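Support request, please re-run this one:
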Amino acid sequence: MNHINRALYFIFISYIIFCSNDTIAQDNNGNNAELWQNIELHDSVRLKMLRDTIWYFIDRDLNKTKELIVDYQKIVTKIGNERYRVDLCNIRSAYFNYLGMDDSSIYYLEESIDIIKAIESDSSFVYGKNQLPFLYSNIAIIYEEIGMYETSIEFQFKCMFELEDILTIDSMNTEMQILYANSNTELGMYYSEFDDKINAEKYFVKGIELANKYNDDNAVAYAEFNYGVYLSNIGEIDTALVIFFNLNNYYKLINDQYSQIMSMLNISDVYNKQVKYKLAMNMSDSCILLSEKYGFYSLYRKSKKVNFIYSINVDDPRLSISLGNEYLIIAEQVKDKLGVKEVLFEMAKIYYEVNELDKAYSYLLKSKIIGDSIVDRDRKANVSILESKYKLIQTNIENKILIREGIVKDKFIKKQKDTNRIIIALLVCTSIFGYILFIGRRKMKRINTKLNESNSLLEEKTTELNNYNSVLERTFSIVSHDLKGPIGTADSFFKMLNDKDNDITDDQRDNYISIVGKSMSVTYNMLEELLIWSRQRLIWSRQRLINKVVLSEFSLYKLVDSIISNIESTVFTKNISIVNSVDTDSVIKSNSNYLRIVIRNIITNAIKFTNEGGEIIISFNSTDDSYSIRIKDNGVGMNNDVLMSLFVDNDSKNGTNNEQGTGLGLLISKRIIKTIEGDILVESKEGVYSIFTIVLKKNAN
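Re-run finished. Output below.
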């Protein structure tokens, strides 16, 4: 989730915190920073002052915020009131979310829910019951922030179910009405992440209708704001621009500076999409001034970052470098690793373009180091999640085994007692006892069979996890080995270029720089393929748990067109023509993210093995039960031996211009296509052409 959506999250958190007050501080300005320490005041009054102070500093001084939270905890521990315990958990959640520690943030929100549910039988604790929807909504926002969109939708529906129960009892509860309208808007946001346009449009429209029905201008503005973001993302930028200008005027009218700056940031984003780069920079400059003036430091960092990004398109490298360094100083102070990594990478490209190769290499290396630390952090988090789920599955199986053993034991004892009574009472019933014993043994055998099946399932899951770890270790070993070559080449030539004692001609220098550039390009491509591979492994792991892949309808022509646009620089260097022969009205139902990766890998492979001046044609055909996407090139082709091993090993071949790769591209593509019930067919004639055909079922589940 970007910083704007983080800001929205804090609006919700502040709403929770201030809802817990009997009175709301209209203009704090940090004046209560010392007043709450007056021990002569009642503890509840001190807590209210301290809450206001924490919220004031959370966007200004995180160290001060941390100290104040410790003080807040001491007073809450002294009072021992459940309401203030809930408030403390909510404040901690907001603090950790602001630091980007999503696991800790979710933990404290769930602890709030547990406290409320533990005492929900207490009818006097209405405050806690009414707060449950806010907590579920905030958990949904955090899961959306880390890309777990299905889980975010699940929690958003929990929020809405709680709201419907509350509104059934108290239909005139204005606070719950507004949250219900906002919840529909947020569902639209989450469905838009899935490219599910039908549900996205449905809930956006419903959110706007409910906000108007409840006659709340802020809820209407919130719904229209997010609808404008959605329209901008799907390309309807003119309509989005009108919405953002209207919202900007509204927020200016009601003196809501925070929301005004957010609407201005979205206006600058639309200008950037319209290729009006100077207008985009001017608008982001205004955002910088306003956010600094009013002390909105998260928006200040966001404005600085987008201002740098927009400056790249203005074609003033020195200005971009200056803005980038300014942002790095600010971002490093709050340990925004992701933002630092992105800006370092962009600045490396700028330095490379202005021929400052030492700095380009230095910035690229820093970006890679930070990126590796982020990947390592995410990997550890994912491993932790898998281990927790594995332990949960194991515990559930053990519990079921114990329950079944207890049932068998109880039934056997009961039957023995009944048999003894029957023998004593009437020996004639011996035959009946034999029959009952036979039935009991048959049931026991059935239970033992199910128990064996459960054990087999557990062993299968354990084997699957071990296989996954083996593949992961092998993949990283291959890629790390492949990375040594290009990085070592670049390092050697950098040292030669920096050695003033070497007599290197201009032609030799240009040749060395060209070699270094190619090595950096190879390194980048390898890292990109590794990222794709690791992301897909995570997605496949999740899918094995939920057994679901989301399919939706989308324009195949637009998808292919966007892929071609993204690889224009690669095509330009070899003067290769790529023709999109897909009909503009061609619509298919599949997973657009998966298909994008596969088509891109195949086109990139075709470019690699097509001579300069060659041609690549992408076409589409539809039958009653399948789709066929055909990618043909007039490159070097393949013999039968290469065709047979194409999807078996990861041996990388050099391209027509000696381009290198990891050899993972086609392996990844084959695995992805199998996931969505498809296949890749290959036809080739050595020295003449190659044709890759992606076949997808129309009725795929």
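Confidence is low (pLDDT under 50) at residues 1-29. The first helix runs from residue 3 to 19.
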